[in-house]
């Protein structure tokens, strides 16, 4: 890598087998451009794949996806013009070629028949971030206090919600298994690959790619707050540890990429609106109501009663409209945005508040407390002193309204708890080996 070249990215990546699986079927890759020329051609590439299949089929499928996507993308990037549409077409084609290769391999060997994998690939190029995606592995972007999900889950529950067949809060919506996916690489000779972007990138933007082993155990608001409060390496560790403390039923893979700076010549994000348009419009109606009612008084004084009635009706109409708009503007934003339907190219699909809060801190603490109660019931030998120290400091921070500081100490408590749990598992495994 050139000494003068600063790729401008801080990143961390972790892939963990979880607490209940014997093998890790996730794969991932991070490939950063090593020169300005390389960045101009291909940018930085990040990929997560979550394999599915009996025996070693899932591991093979996810590894093949990673290898084929990265090799095809970088080989083709050196032959394409510097154009964002060419780059996103190449990224989508790379995922498509991975599907063809995985399917062909599955057809050749009965042990690998119907093996499959998800794939979420993101490249940061001079024009912004571009994504190609199949399955329910996710790509998020944290900007300021908002966490956006930039990929649509190709899962049964998301497809049914998007089609309007079920409401997410209904009994039927809650009963649909969340891990049933409707699209993956490998089982079929052809697959529809969604593409998103380019999204202009700003310094401070943080992107997260993950498998559903993480997103299935850690809420979106928790992901956003942890990303906003912690350095990338600690955030990655805490997210995976949190998923494991909540049972770790699946492999968890996470890549976090924080943009420290964009190289010269990169696209600049559009400026945010200076004012809330809805509130500006709403302010016109109270003024109109007052003007109409004052005018009605003048008309009454002049004896123009018919015009007075019209002015009163107009004033009442403006007043009612103002009240309705103020009520609508006071409602909290819905996590599900209007473009919540399949096909790609319509991100973001969900939006979440990433601000740390008292309730979030309590939720993180509860996870540790529940594990501690279970450890006491099973008489595990675990040292809780460091955990207690961080929890006390977090409580003090909450009482002072320092919620970000509280999240940082709850994160330390989570890491310390998971370390204790690993040591307990090692002791139990050693005792079992001695008994045998």
UniProtKB/TrEMBL annotation:
Keyword Membrane: yes
Coiled-coil annotated spans: 404-431
Annotated region described as Disordered, given as residue ranges: 334-355
Keywords: Coiled coil, Hydrolase, Membrane, Transmembrane, Transmembrane helix
Residues spanning the signal sequence: none
SUPFAM superfamilies membership: PP2C-like
Transmembrane portions of the chain: 280-302, 308-328
Protein name: PPM-type phosphatase domain-containing protein
């Amino acid at each position: 890598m050139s000494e003068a070249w600063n790729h401008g990215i801080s990143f961390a990546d972790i892939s963990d087998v979880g607490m209940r699986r014997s093998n890790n079927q996730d794969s991932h890759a991070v490939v950063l451009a090593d020169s300005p020329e390389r960045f101009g051609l291909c940018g930085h590439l990040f990929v997560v794949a979550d394999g599915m299949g009996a025996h070693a089929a899932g591991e093979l499928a996810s590894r093949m996806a990673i290898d084929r996507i990265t090799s095809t993308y970088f080989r083709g990037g050196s032959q394409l013009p510097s154009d964002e549409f060419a780059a996103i077409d190449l990224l989508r084609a790379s995922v498509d070629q991975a599907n063809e290769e995985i399917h062909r391999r599955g057809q050749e060997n009965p042990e690998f028949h119907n093996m499959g994998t998800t794939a979420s690939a993101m490249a940061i190029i001079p024009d912004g971030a571009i994504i190609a995606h199949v399955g329910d592995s996710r790509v998020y972007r944290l900007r300021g206090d908002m966490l956006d999900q930039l990929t649509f889950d190709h899962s049964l529950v998301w497809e049914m919600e998007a089609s309007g067949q079920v409401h997410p809060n209904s009994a039927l919506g809650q009963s649909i298994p969340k891990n049933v996916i409707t699209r993956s690489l490998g089982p079929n000779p052809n697959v529809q690959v969604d593409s998103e972007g380019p999204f202009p990138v700003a310094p401070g933007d943080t992107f997260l790619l993950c498998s559903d082993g993480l997103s299935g155990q850690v809420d979106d608001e928790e992901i956003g707050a942890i990303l906003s409060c912690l350095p990338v390496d600690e955030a990655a560790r805490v997210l995976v540890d949190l998923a494991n403390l909540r049972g770790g039923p699946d492999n968890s893979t996470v890549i976090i990429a924080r943009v420290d700076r964009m190289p010269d010549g990169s696209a600049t994000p559009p400026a945010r609106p200076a004012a809330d348009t809805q509130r500006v419009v709403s302010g016109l109606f109270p003024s109109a109501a007052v003007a109409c009612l004052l005018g009605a008084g003048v008309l009454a004084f002049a004896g123009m009663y018919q015009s007075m009635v019209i002015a009163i009706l107009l004033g009442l109409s403006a007043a009612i409209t103002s009240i309705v708009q103020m009520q609508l503007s006071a409602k909290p934003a819905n996590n599900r945005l209007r473009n919540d339907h399949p096909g790609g190219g319509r991100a973001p699909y969900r939006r979440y508040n990433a601000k740390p809060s008292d309730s979030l801190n309590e939720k993180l603490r509860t996870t540790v407390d529940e594990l501690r109660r279970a450890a006491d019931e099973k008489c595990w030998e675990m040292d809780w002193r460091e955990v207690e120290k961080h929890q006390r400091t977090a409580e003090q921070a909450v009482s002072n309204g320092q919620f970000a500081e509280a999240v940082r100490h709850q994160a330390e408590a989570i890491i310390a708890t998971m370390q204790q749990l690993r040591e307990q598992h090692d002791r139990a495994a050693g005792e079992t080996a001695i008994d045998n």
